[in-house]
Amino acid sequence: MAHLVMATEPELVGRGTELAEVQAQLNGMVAGSANCLVVSGDPGIGKTALVHHACASMAPSLLVLSGACLPLTSLKIPFIALRTALRAAPQLDGLDAPLLGTGTSGATDAVIIDLDNWLSRMCRIQPVVIIVDDLQWADQGTLDALMFLIAGPGDRRLSILATLRSGELGETHLLRRWLADIRRMPRVFWLRLGPLDRQATGAQMAEILGASPHQSLVQQVFSHTAGNAYLTRLIIAGLRSDTRALPAQLPEDLRAAVLRSWHGLSTGARALTELMAAGGRPIRAEDLNGLARQAGAADDTLGILHEASAAGLVETNPEGSHWWFRHPIISEVLEQSMESGQRQELHSLFAAYAENLVKLSVAPGLELLTSLAHHHDAAGHLPQAYRWTLRAAAVATPGTGELLRLLTRALTLREFLPEAKENREELLALVRSAAEDAGAMEEELEAVQSLLEVVDESRRPLDAAELLVRGTLLRFSAGHEFLSEGTLRRAVRLAQVSPESWQYAYALAELAHVGIWKDDPEAPTRAARALDIALRAGNPRALSYALSANAMAALIGERPAEARVLAGRAALAATQAKDFWAMVHATLWQANATETWLSRSFADLMLSGRQQLMVLGAPHVYIAKLAADEAASYLAVGLWRECASALRVVLGSDPGPLGDVSARLTAGRLAALQGRIEEAQAHLERAEELFAYQSGYNNFDFDAIRAEVFLASGNPAAAYAAAMAGATKEGQPPTMCEWLLPLAARALADLAQLASDEGQETTEARALTETLLTQFPAVIRDTGNDTELYAAHIVAFTLLYQAEIGRAQALSNNAAQWIETCDACRSTSLRWEEAYACWRSVQALLLHGHTGRAPATVLLRRGIALANELQAVQLQSALREIAIRARITTDQPVIGKLVGGANGLQGLTVRELEILEHVVAGRTYAQIASSLVISEKTVSSHISNMLRKTGTANRLDLSRFATRRGADPVISVDDD
Known about the structure:
The chain is mainly α and 976 residues long. Helix content is 63%, strand content 4%. The chain is flat and about 100 Å long.
């Protein structure tokens, strides 16, 4: 029996490519090709987890023997990793693992040969994997033994997986020669493991926290750990899943882990690395030497740096000119561990050092100026810190987070410096502008709210009106509330003192915007008036918002061509104003006026829009919003892989609240459709946390997705409540409004089925169904562009709604309803709904017994093929269960890909088409009869009829004819 020796590992994330590479080596070994794989990378990067997961994925076919080398100093124990590995080896066929020496004696030829012979015998019984962790600490005996095994028989089913810490091999390390030697040997492979990217770090955090983390926390953790899986695990230990930011002090376990090697350094090396940590950036050895002398540290700076390098703490850049820590978190931990007095003293040294560099520089750069400001601040020199912070901000690039951080620091320092010449409003305005350019919505909102406290409305009504409008948009974008009509009316009243001003046009346009969402009949008039004023005022920002409001009004008024032109002009004006939120808004309405969002073409328009934003240098939050909408469109038409790819773009950096909630809803829907219920619930919960006023956001699909998640988790009552909450909402229909009534009816049908299964009355569910149908005789349509495709979608959703009503009422013609729904969904690329309708069709057909068996078979195979492609696990299971119970074969290929009802096959019955599938597949009469549970004589009779109808001479001729004339079959319930 196979035996696996390994520890249980946490879930592996972000390592799909590397895992496949290790598995490929193992598969090659199982096939009879011995090999060795050395996996290298920084400490904590996930090397051990990777190799263990690769082995676990092939359990129980492998015998995995795992041991680790140890950093022993006084003890000399040979073969320590191999001893550990063999200690847990099982006894197979009476073979005991060899004893690898005793006491502290060195390696001997006999011991290594015994091990080699034992492994050869074991490999004939079962493939063997030897895992050797931390090869950098291996003793000479272990290295000799591994060399001998690597050089052994090439056809032996043996893999050696060794992990190696990068950067811990000094010039004289004994492993350097060993690695050079095995590089020349055959069947030795190398894998360099890098850090996780931001998205994979977020996935690891979700695994640890038990729920999807806030993107702000992901960003902060990633900036600290740089994708090191071990450090990520330590830094978030003990945090709640709803935490938005890391605590000021790093966790004690993390500090201890980082400082473990540091405590082993000499006194001089510890002092010098503390000095480096206070510096905060790479430094030349000669400069560090001068600072060390001022600080009273040791003189042998270069020797001490090499000591710290050998301990894996510091390294040089590729040019060898500057030294810095191997991981930035080491510097942070060291600085936090200092006493405040020591920290201030060291920062004073660096401030003086940096000022001297500034004096020597003709044009000091941002990095040097920022460093100087930081050291003065940390040393408590507030006036100097303020002065140098402003000077650094003056050379910082607009639109960057660095400029925003500098200005925010200057604003904070200004509170302690009453003599500063810059007033608070000036700094707030600079912070607001920098936050807008960087896409930092919360920071901009805070600055706008602070400015509103400073600005006197009675003296400066236009400034106050502009701030109120911008604040309203920011509160919407940050998920605090939907567009506030009251605040916008206040802005309009303030700006009305100057009715030709751009501020008045701006406020009026956004009041029209919210009015359109709320079905205010005055909204289109306001939008037109705002446009007239904006055109005269000549302000591109006001013009963009006014044009977008008029585009919305035109689309709601069923004038899509006009709406497209207006939205296109709005996008151009937004580009001129460099207002990226206005550009996103215009892009969305231009796409809405072009085609329904339930289409590939809409997704392509979102892709084009976000690419244009990238060219213009827009912050990621705006790019993320369009990528999230792109993902939702891909998902709607069943292109789930493209959806997943767009979601990766969203989460490539902090997407901001709008992009985050949009992505969460789409990711939750995808997870629900594919049967990953816990993941779906986690995404939905996080979206609800992000936007406290969820259902009030009509442009989001909270209600429909909430209903889908409830249905997938087996809670139809909650699904009905969620769907009805969306269906009865005031104002413009919410996104995914077309799904709401079919989902409500599906929930009622499920409730009726549950009651029936439990032997209870179905009266209540059926009464609710009647009420639903009375209240909503037709599905809810979105307002705006009624394209040909959207009209076809409405037909499909109407049929889906009627079929669910029929299921709830147990109508006798329900099978025909579901079959019609299948075809309507297929013609409109609603692939998830098509797969679901196939399942319901098969259920309804088989209720009629033998008469529905033939079309049920065709639909069953069609549904399974779709469910497999969509990876819809719940539908796969449901359809396969029906196939087993009804004894229907699901063998492929099926005729859906080859032949069908068009071009000469229209006259064939469903049973004949079903048999024709098997003929095309080359099956015999006996195989066809067995598969379809009919007699060979019946098969022969049907084939004779098909030969007559098609004018073909024999089965081969019939198969060729079917292939040439191919199309999907037309299904009739009455055929047999």
